[in-house]
Records
---
Amino acid sequence: MAKTTLSTRDSGYGASASPWKAVLWVIWLILMVGGTIGVFQRFSSGHLAAGYGSYVPWGLWIGLYFLGVGISGGSFIIGAVGYIFGIPGFSRPSELRTAIVLSLAALIPAFIGVALDLGHMERLIKVLTSPVFTSMMAFNAWMYNIFIVVAAVSWLLTFKDNSTWLKPLLVFGAFLSILFPSQSGVFFEAVRTNEFWHSPLLSVLFLASAIALGAAGLLFVRILLGESGNREGYSNAIRWLRTIAVAAIIVYLAFEFAEFSIVLWNPGQHSPSIDFLLFGGYWQVFWILHLLLGALIPLALFASNHKGLWAIAALLTGLGFAAARMCILVPGQIAGHIPGLQQAFQDVRLTYSYHPTSMEYLVGFFMLAVGMAIFYVGIRLGKTFASSPEHGYGSSIEQDGGLQSGTAA
Amino acid sequence: MSEPKGKMERREFLLAGGLVGAGTAVAGVVIVKDRMPSAPQDPTGEKTVRNLNVLKNLKPQEHEDEHVRMQRELVKAMAKPVEKRHWAMVIDTRKCVGCHACTIGCVAENKLPPGVVYRPVVITETGDYPNVQMRFLPRPCMQCDNPSCVPVCPVKATWKRPDGVVAIDYDKCIGCRYCLNACPYGARTSDFGRHYTGEAAGAPSGKDRPMEGIAAAQWEHEPSNEYGKSWSRKDHSSPVGNARKCHFCLHRLEVGQLPMCVTTCIGRATYFGDSNDADSLVSSLIVKNNSQTLLAHLGNKPQCYYLV
């Protein structure tokens, strides 16, 4: 069996000799440097360097925000359910901690994207201090914050032997993890005047994508981190994660087909959005990024027995659902109700079109870099706090942990 | 430490049920509470009555000018408490000539920056030569009675006033732009902090030459008087970063002036008044059989009517 092992005896993911550690650091540095430039541009020129406007008010950052929310909810619920039911590969505290840390590492950068998107970032706290729960935005904001507390406390309790509160908190966290990804769909559905968004299937799509993203995310980091001295559990875990990811992707595609097929056979008000998505300016994002690279190729790679290919499939799944988020977000905004409005008062911010700018992409890099940093620090802290191999990766990962590639058999 | 148990004990199960149940109950209570009608956040009653001196020396006459009549009706409406008024606008599309005077008047009145517009005029050309028709559709905020922009605001920075106007609190708005997406009329635009003079650098010369000099810059920083307050856009202050929209020139109504778009309309195509007053001009126009509302099927109950 071909195998590449990264020892974690030093402070990084692997031994200094490992090429993967160097690659990860280089990727992170590029993302962080580029991202810092983007954040600087955002603060120095406000929203003027962004591509969104008044007729397409939300852009890339909102898409990435919902991507992060999906990864967060999905990884937590899979980790929590696996731990509660004692599924081998998920039942150890260290394995639960990986899921929790991934969940937080996906959610916190998502907030950065939203915060930078606001016209008045300094008033963000008002969503918590004076919320109106007729708005899904306020409801979601509260859920996220409660979830962060629940996830953080659960993470702490994993270090305590026989905690009575851990499993109840995990159940509550899993409940929230089902709720907030699906309610992210309601975030769009609640816009009753937008026929493209006002569909109950969106919550199902968001939940299915959250499960797929959580499974793919966990699969990737579990392969990255290695066996943790529990080879059997590890193999079982990544097989489960692969199965869950495949099932969730298929469910997503099935519901997406259901949604679009109705429109194609019975064209209604939202057919301009569908036309734009499938055959218009967004066809590459849908057919190539979302469907081909983000769903069909991952499904094919997951069908193999090679763990290295599963890791690639997991990454592509993340890319695909990022594209899928944009496929919901942008087409829903490019079809105005009043023909000719765009020409009525001409301005670059008053157009029904959207292309992310370099500044938006760079801020996206920053979000990714922050997520990677939180994950790294979270895993390191877990290892530091753990007092025994069962608490953390302990000595086992010191010997065996790391990115591995090879056949699963 | 041994491998964790693979199932939950009764105590853990009860705790989990309690947490989920309590969370659901709290969520249900706060959602229902915010859905219930609440007291208006605006002042109401006698303190909102305005006894204006406008037109006091001009006696009502039969067949008087429509603008004079509307202004008289405005004064009459302002003499009532705010909750007794209900502002409405009627636009006679047959009289609109597409001059954009309302658009420009609004820009000047509210000191609107680039990319922010409250009342564009949508022009559509239909038919083929020689049977060609130009149609003009001024589009202010519809001040919907069932606005889709209000419930999506996470901080209640936008709300329906007792007189029917959908208002925005610029000091509260966080700039999330959810309301922009919720408005089917595209009536809300975001103030991204742009300036005419700042963008002028490198612009062409000749008739497209931008404003120059201190005077232009000063004009840009003149405060607007929206909602009866003074708003300066200096140093990224609100309304920069906020959602902005037509508010029927509430600040002008307070002093007995008709909205700017009404007074600048050279075709006398825009009517404004209190639809709670059965004798008002707008009330008589709203009930005409050629009166329509825009996108009525969406159920927003717009309070801007079009005569077609």
---
Amino acid sequence: MTKPGDQWKWQELEPGFVVTGPGSAAEYKTGDWKSSHPEWNEAVCVKCGLCYSYCPDMAVKQKDTGYFAGDNNYCKGCGICSQECPTSAIKMVEGK
Amino acid sequence: MTEQARKKEGIEVSLAVSEAVKQCDADVISAYPITPQTHIVEHLSELVASGELDAEFIPVESEHTAMSVCAGSSAAGARTFTATASQGLALMAEIVYCVSAMRLPIVMVVSNRSLNAPLSIWNDHGDVMMVRDSGWVQVFVENGQEAYDHIFWSFRVGEDPKVSHPVMLNMDGFIVTHTIEPIEFWTDDMVKKFLPPFKPIHTLHPDHPLTMGAYGPPEIYTECKMAQEHALMATVPTIEKAWDELYEVCGRRYSPVEKYKADDAKILFLTMGSIGETATLAIDEMRETGQEVGLVSLRLWRPFPFEHFKAAVKNAETLIVVDRAMVFGGVGGPVALEVKSALYSEKKRPKVVNFIAGLAGRDVQPDDFWQMVERAKSKVANGKEDEFEIYGVRG
């Protein structure tokens, strides 16, 4: 989609509602579903990357420093990263 | 037209339908056997197995899967055919709705059969009425020749880029499908002239990634349905053009609403499917006794041909709608409900009398049409025309 869903007129839709380009799901920001978000304590993080591996939505990114951070455009606040972190470096904090 | 084309051959209509699918050079056939559709796909499996038809025949474990396979093959650009009836159509219904919204031009024969319970394999229109609102182009045929001709027509219409819709070809189970009729076959030249190769609007292909059947959140679903409704209504000119071209190719004239001795008729019957031919026998007899009776038969059921229909019935005093399905808890049969709605805003309109007849293979014979005329006259005289009647029910 080249513009937000609520700006399309019915005449502009492709026959069969085909989405003609790949990767369009990235344009649909789903991060506002969450009620809490993960925060990393880099003092205890050992950069093992389990949070990155376990995230079901590929919403954990590795920074240039080697530490990790959540991508709040897509993170849905499920808390799996926090649950799996072996050093308890990730805390779920209320709010988006 | 060549001599070869005029030659008629006695053949079971189901097999003639399969031969037409072969002549259309279908690429994929996926189906699950169900009476009274079985002979169609059984013969197609034989044609594929013998090499006469170069196609994939994909046997599946259910009709739900049959239509799912058809969705995939049509999306990949393959000319796709299936057939079903009754319970099979019911099981398939979820995907029936998907493929119309996705504009996949699958052709499906429905050999019309009643819905259980009680268990019944016999003919009525209960099955197609269940998916009436599914967004397919839906047509009815009355006999074997019409069934055969309309296989070519269904692919021609459905695959036209201006249409790109699935087409449901309804033919009465057993009464049409299992009758041996003299069929005038098309030559391959006729097929070639009438049916161009299938060129889909969108095709699944790894070189051109796209998404079909995507998620449609509330902010876009309404626009999708408006586009779908508009697209279905916009098929009518192409539908009529295809019938004109079919006439040029084979000499048989079809139209959305067909008439028999209807122009001067005060009492008109409205039928769909094979009982229309029975009605013409009764009309001929009644005409000999001086009764001004005629017939209008709906060939195109979806999109409903409102303008053609209104023009066909505008001079009648009474319109007797013979439905072949129930609408439980409603105010009549499905066709009567439709035509009453179509006529509601007309200043001059016939009185509509509704009979539900021929449920699950109960014979409707010429004499029954005589009886319906008498019952209709009585109902109109007593102001009871709004009360629908299940014709011939005991008790």
---
Amino acid sequence: MRIVEKSQLMSAPEIDRTLQRLAHQIVEKSGGTKHLALIGIRRRGVPLAQRIAKAMRGIDGVDVPVGTLDITLYRDDLSKVAPQAVLQSSDIPFGVDNMDLVLIDDVLYTGRTIRAAMNGLFDLGRPSRVSLCVLIDRGHREMPIEAQFIGRSVQTSPTEIIEVRLREIDTEERVVLVDRTEP
Amino acid sequence: MLADQLKSAAMTYRFRDLLALEPLTADELTFLLDQSKPFQEIQRHSLKKLATLRGKTVALAFFENSTRTRISFGTAASRLGADTMNLQAESSSVKKGESLLDTVHTLNAMKPDCLVMRHASSGAADFVARNLDIPVINAGDGTHEHPSQGLLDALTIRDRKGSLENLNITILGDISHSRVARSNIHLLAKFGCRFTLCGPAMWVPRELQAIGPPGAAIRRVFRIEEALEGADVILVLRVQTERLHEPPLSANDYILLYQLNADRLRRAKPDALVLHPGPMNRGIEITPQVADGPQSCVLEQVTNGIAVRMALLFLLTAGGAEETVDSHGALNPSPSGPGSAAAEVQKLAQAQAAGTKKDSPHAPR
Amino acid sequence: MLLVRNGRMLDPASGTDATGDILLDGETIKEIAPSGQLAADASKYEIFDATGLIVAPGFIDIHTHLREPGQEASETIETGTRSAAHGGFTAVCCMPNTRPVNDNASVTRFILDRAKTTAAVRVWPIGAASVASKGEAIAEIAAMKEAGIVAVSDDGKPIATAKLTRQVMDYCRSLDLPVIEHSEDVSLAAGAVMREGVTSTRLGLPGMPAAAESVCVARDVQLAELTGARLHVAHMSAKGSLEQVRWAKARGLRVTCEVTPHHFTLIDEDVQYDSRYKMNPPLAAREDREALIAGLADGSVDAIATDHAPHEPALKDVEFDRAPFGILGFETALALSLEQLVHPGKISLLRMVELFTSGPARVLGIERKLASGQPADLTIFSADRAWTYDVKQSPSKSRNSPFDGRSFKGGPVATIVAGRIAFRLSHSANAGS
């Protein structure tokens, strides 16, 4: 089985522009940043959340707090991944009660990750609102979950994989669509 | 998401069981300590309950008296959402006829996912692990090892000191019969720690200096004043009655020579930590002043114990189930299959029996 | 009549190492001659072709446990002696720690009667020194001697007190019986399950120091001097014990000793919570093993004895400290002796045969040699045949051997007792098959 890059979905500048736009959308929708906080879902949701927060600093001049959430303990498919799962700590240095939280992740697919993330958030307290912001929505939902803020929607087939590469983690910065094919 | 995790997992715990710390490398030990950190965090939530091990059963087989460790493992299992099966066999009921193996096979027939075991015989956990095909966690076997205690002590020390490297560790008490001391030596020596073992000569045999990894610095000292000079960490052992000391020593003599009091504690470094595996005999091996003082870490040890045990249960039990359930609720064999896992275990057991001596008593998955 | 043709005959009693033929007539050796001199007439005799093999006087194991009466689940006289024959032994001395203890003439006679009908090799019982081996009253040693015991011992334990040991030695000297001592200071060894050392400390298992044995050997040697008795130190494992024995021999005392194959093969570092490595005296330190091998080579050690101690699997398959002491020994003794002593050049083949034949015979005050008129007991073995020990194939009822699965070079090929073949390898008896 081989993995073949089929196309590039977003280039580095396109990613940046999209994050800027998302930051604006979130600020506008929330009606002010007073109780707003961003929660990046490990791994790639984290740098995205940090960049969006930075952009927000540019818009409103406010520092919106950013937390990171590790969802490993809340997964519903733990028995398949656990031998290789590496637990990281969550780090949410503020109370979540009565907060307007925006979960941020790179790709929204089946929705199970977000289901697990919400379990994690509600273990910490009672937010007043939780919304979801993703860079790519690739469809094929298995949960009744939708994102309120979407960078780009892409039609995909189940054999395809969307790889979001970010400079904080990977050696390059772009979003690619790859496919698994038989040789 | 999954692909990322697989790629970034530089280290996983490769054994099926946790029977001893002696065979683990410094990297593996660090991994176990790091994996405990998210669970320390969970202890701070108001809702300390996860569904991670929901549907799994953890069997607690305690053949030797222990309230604290049993409660600690039981709580760890519950907080992960698992159910527990509790066996509290006094050693005498086993003597009445049912062999250890029979007892364990009976428990196993009730299909737990993991066995946590404490027993008065050194090597009992190893013996049981060889005869079962579920993960076994050693919660203390005779005078051999108490791995989760070693880990929680190390986590406590690392949190307070920032690192485990090159510390001066003084251990006080009946070391010849202490599995806690052995586990601590096997763990901390791998980080370059130096050990001073102190107690009455009959309780600190010469051979203890040779049990650490090659090159480990372990010395025996019989005067407490000398033993405490320059100590970074003082591990105070309980003067115990359930495993009688050999030979027994008068309490007055012990207090006179080896009790850790505030005066003697001043000889150690000013930021030295005092650890005790519990339960403490206040007024015998340790004074209330020291036990409740700022250098004492005993309560953190207990809290960290839950985190460490949650991490161990998670690592050994969360995955690799013989079956996975598909979207219709039907059972699928896992790709590696129960058959192949059991075959691996058997192959390794045979290889060990054939001749390797110092190899790990664990069976990898 | 049985003609054993063309074997390499090793007879330590006469120092013979020559190829030749041995003619057995009924239960006696009739004639011994250089190869070919005795007409190989197949119409007159059964012929055993020993070409390429070694023919020795029948091996004697002076320290064994046959468990009958009382513990037949672990072994019987029948199964134990069949295992002995498989190991090349033609005679075994069985220790008295049966149930009931062999402390009176009735039990001795029972054992001999059972042996007469079921045993594959000769059985020479050892009687207890004290009643029930409790270490209080002296057993009826004279009556047992009349019934057929060859020595006296409270094996499993030492004779309980110095005073009783002295009395037993006095008595046995007058009856001309050797006293075989399991030398162990019970207080030093109390609770121990292996040798005290770095390994026992690492494993958290209670250990006994070497002194637990040598302190008692010292006591027994002093009492042997006091009484003039014949003292035989059983299963000697420590350097310090051997030094006591050497001292005694230098003074002309009638002190002898034996070493087991497991003590010259394994050491305490080999113990790893596996009860197949648990016995008493326990596996010792590296320096003890080296000292024992030196003693086997220089003549200070008189015999190799197995201390064959079967325990049924249900008893041995438990946590290490609950398992009973003891391992099997008959079928691996010769192979281990070749592997550890002869092949590496520590002792000669002739000396090895001595340790299995004239050595133990001397301890018992009898002869064992290849000569006309001697009992027709022969041990025929190969010094280089490749084979692997599979304990599941053993005639013994037990399986407690740490050597299961071990590959050997050299082993028993045939065992002849009182003129009859008690054991024979199933395929053709050629060297290196």
---
Amino acid sequence: MNDTMRKVAIARKIARPNTKEFIEDIFEDFLEFHGDRLYADDGAVIGGIASFEGIPVTVVGIQKGHDLEENVKCNFGQPGPEGYRKALRLMKQAEKFKRPVITFINTAGAYPGIGAEERGQGEAIARNLKDMSNLKTPVISIFTGEGGSGGALALAVADTVWMLENGLFSVLSPEGFASILWRDSSRVEEAATLMKMTAKDLMKDRIVDRIFYEPKEGIENNLKFTTDQIKTALRETLPELRGLSIEGLLGRRYKRFRQYGEFME
Amino acid sequence: MNLFGKKNYFSLDGNEDKRKNDRRKKRNEPSIPDGMWIKCNTCKSIIYKKEVTEYKLCPECDAHFRMSPEERIAITCDEGSFTELDSGMKPKNPMRYPGYDEVIENAQKKAGIPEAVVTGHAKIDCYEVVLAIMDSHFMMGSMGSVVGEKVTRAVEYATEYRLPIVIFTTSGGARMQEGIISLMQMAKVSSALARHDEAGLLYVTVLTDPTTGGVTASFGMLGDIILAEPKALIGFAGQRVIQATIHQKLPEGFQRAEFQLEHGFADRIVHRKKIREELATILKLHSS
């Protein structure tokens, strides 16, 4: 197994701390809120209000389970449109009350199902991209595990994007890439390396601004090792982002996403 | 596309799968091949090529064949009014994908344009408008850096000159060969559209066959007004991916334009012969 595939395996580990555990470790007074106010409450996305060292914040993230029962409740961390709409509802609420938003991303991707299509999975993701780009409050996104395509991006249009050492973000899975582009699933390791989906690769491509290290014994055995670094980063970054004017903040966010692309003229 | 963590969507060893893949490719071959006779993929009739007019409709069943941007401009814009923007923009190889240059060269030959979208400004029934028209003949209209950049610039141009923008979509989604950069185009275009929207300007999407993946999940679904061509395939997840996930047959008409209308995700289904007229009416009612 090559380096990237080892990271893929770690990112997908069922014991890997989930969003709820990150939230409870980093924040105080977490109150979970439910529902998109339109159709349902999607267990794959959790969110609510909390405080970070006295600052009220909104937290939203994609939730995975540690066993089958939990995973059925959160649909294995694959949100439907209700999940993305719940996330947006909570982010809009944060905008109203001038609370910074912190999102946690760990998903194989948006759920591909009949109901999800009937209720507009594409529309829900599109709306999040557009409205997050214009959300008049600071947004910080943290990739904690898998970062599968549009379903992950839908919570990551942020002022700054952070990632755990074994986090991932890519346009599709290495398995999918090898199957679709090469029609050869045995080339998955080659695909994984080529896709530059690890935190280090993504930092080089300016997709990720900051990496948090994980303990040698595995993050599931020592979550605090990593959340301490996240807290330090929040302590530095939150005042900085809150100090910007809304215009300045949105201008910066626009530039951040405007820069992506390689082409010749 | 959602392919993360799914190890066996379809098995890929052996020639049977390759043959299946080739057959699928053939079946989906959208455009009209050279020669006197062509076959309609919808009604399977053999059609005399000369019977197909500039609207590219099946004379037997009225199926809307896939079109090139050039053909689309001819039936949509006032004659001679189209001025292209960023015509020289060409792709690089951000992920160092082996053989990408060759893939691009073949796509350019096949489609006759340098990338999968043509942008510009034009007049429709004397109303000024910015246009972006995608082309499924170019790597299935997949969105990489160039598509994202050209569409973003077109939107920014429209915002700067306070013009409406109309985007004709057709795309299989993000261009996998460009990796994560292709995914980021979704956020880039959507951010530009947010500014156009904030400026109080009009955006009309025309969804044509097929519009899926990252294009649906970004500018495809963001129009103030969303029109769709009859029977166009429109959705987020690919049908094979859904089938492999749920192990169920997909319902008849799933993800077609009519399905999107029924579920509230398109404003109108418009026959291709009426699109120019409807766009003109929409532009008229939004002109000050």
